Amino acid sequence: MPARAGARAFDPEVIDRLLKRTAGLVRRGDYQDLPAWRAATVAAAARQARGADPLLVPMTVLRRRHLEDILGALRHRGHEVRHVLLDVSPPVLIERVEAADSLDADGWRLEDLGAYLTARRDLRALGEVVDTDDLEPDEVADEVHDLIRAWRQARD
What are 34-65's pLDDT values in tens digits? Predict the structure, then answer.
């Protein structure tokens, strides 16, 4: 997918790292439960969204209530918000986790597999879904790009 002028990405995990360094608030695996993380994520994403079209926020939020809080707060601030789930079937997800280069992440990724499978149906209902089982990363990006294009056409 060719880069589009004005597009920007924001990774909310930087908020996690900031909270760990400055406040010592975060223990492994629980930072999304912190109201401070959710509030800071909204504030930072809203700031990053200024002048971005679109702002892409790649993040897995497994608790529907947390995701709805974040999306709702951004909408309340006047931002157009769309949710896209990059979905994958359980066998392919396990295969990808086991094939990942990061050995440190494998343990918690496999631990969170059950949580993802539990949340999957709710997450699918919150917006668009791109099934990634048979897609290469650039094909996934193309699918998301096509969704953004369709949303723009409908808006304009």
Answer: 888 899 999 999 999 988 888 899 888 888 99
Cα(8)–Cα(94) distance, rounded to whole angstroms? 30
Alpha-carbon span 59 to 41, nearest angstrom: 11
Identify the bridge partners of residue 129 per DSSP, sorted by sequence position. 85
The three-point CA angle 15-89-2 to 5° equals: 60
Three-class SS state of 129: strand
Query: Minimal CA–CA distance to 123: which of 74, 34, 60, 38?
Result: 60
Structure-block tokens of residue 96: 């990808």
Determine if the pTM surpasses 0.90. Answer: no
As a whole number of angstroms, the distance between CA 122 and CA 119 comes to: 6
